[in-house]
Amino acid sequence: MGLGHSWREVERTYAEVNRLFGDIVKVTPSSKAVGDMTLFLMAREMRPQDLLKLDIEHDVAFPNSVVEMLGGGLGNPPDGWPTKVQEIILRGAKPQQGRPGARLKSLDMEDAQKRLEKEVGRTVRRDELLSYLLYPEVFLKYDTFRQTYADVSVLPTPPFFYGLRPDQEITISIEAGKTLVVRFLAVGEPHPDGTRTLFFELNGQPREINVRDRALRILAPAHPKADSADPGQVPAPTAGMVTSIAVELNQEVAREAKLLTVEAMKMQSNIYAPIAGHVSKIHVSPGQQVEAKDLLVTITP
Fold first, then answer.
1. Residue 115, phi then psi, degrees to nearest 5
2. Can you say whether the dihedral through the CA atoms of 93, 94, 99, 105 is positive or negative?
3. What's the pLDDT at 220?
């Protein structure tokens, strides 16, 4: 999220957000909610105390993890949540009471497995089904990655994260009795589309692939920024990726209707309509990277 240079400030803000929430017990997932709120506020150049200045009819798209936690999705602290903070985060909505698990409906495991297998297009194991039921979005991303790139857990950790150096050779055991020897040879010159050709040997045979070089600057039209003076222009709250769009062009929407979802480092934020009207333009698409304040949707009253 571009905040790596501000680590000490992140630490201080994390402590302030923790106190804002009532100095809560911080284990996953409550610790993640505190962290999400910390990065969210810093990306918007807000301080934790600035949150208390908002009224309950604000249009700030707080991270989903924070909204769910203050809404009782993880349960409630012994003395409850700070009242004003909770009202602002939930925008006046009524929080859940009692143990969240007590409200869960019974689940038909066989039906759930059939639905999951239809979605991923293959037979799934019981442990995969349980992973999906606990973390549906995370599991589907994981499965898509595995189907695209196969089982990358066989790769040594340093090459997986940092790649190979020229002339470096590694051995990969992909299954019993089957070993690959990979030697990285050289990097080609950049292509106009921002890719480069990589040359290497696989078990002594020459191979080459084209990959995108993210270090290259590719000239592209700048994405328009939302005009803060126009309430119908919906901005991105933080940098991230658009994961889903919930509306269509020319659709009539009420105020606070869900428009889309933006994700950054597993921090998801639902973006809601700041005014009622019709969706006159959608400026982004699923999978698109956006920066803070980029124009996402235009709503005409």
1. -65, -40
2. negative
3. 59
pLDDT tens-digit series, residues 94-135: 999 889 989 888 999 999 999 999 999 999 999 999 999 999
pLDDT band for 44, please (50, 70, 90 cuts).
confident
Whether the predicted pLDDT of 260 surpasses 90? yes
Task: Compute, in degrees rounded to 10, the torsion defined by CA atoms 274, 279, 280, 281.
Answer: 90
Q: Quick check: helix, strand or coil at residue 88?
A: helix
Residue 123 makes CB contacts below 8 A (sequence gap 6+) with: 117
Instruction: Name the one residue in this structure whose structure tokens are 């809404």.
Output: 71
Cα(156)–Cα(67) distance, rounded to whole angstroms? 38
Whether a cis peptide bond, with omega within 30° of 0, leads into 29 is yes
Find out whether 270 and 61 touch, Cβ atoms under 8 Å. yes
For the CA atoms of 147, 148, 154, 155, the dihedral, rounded to the nearest 10 degrees, stands at: -170
Q: Rounded CA gap, 297 and 78, in Å?
A: 41
Q: How many CB atoms lie within 10 A of CB 300?
A: 11
Q: pLDDT tens digits for 139-187? A: 999 999 999 888 899 999 999 999 899 999 999 998 888 999 999 999 9
Would you call 288 exposed, middle or buried from its count of C-beta atoms within 10 A (0-12, 13-18, 19+)? middle
Q: Which residues pair with 244 in a beta bridge?
A: 261
pTM of the model: 0.69
C-beta neighbour count of 61 within 10 angstroms: 22
Q: Which two tokens stand for residue 85?
A: 């903070």
DSSP-derived 3-state class of residue 50: helix
Six token digits for residue 138: 């995370």
The answer on pLDDT for 14 being more than 70 is yes
Helices then strands (H, E): number in the chain?
9, 12
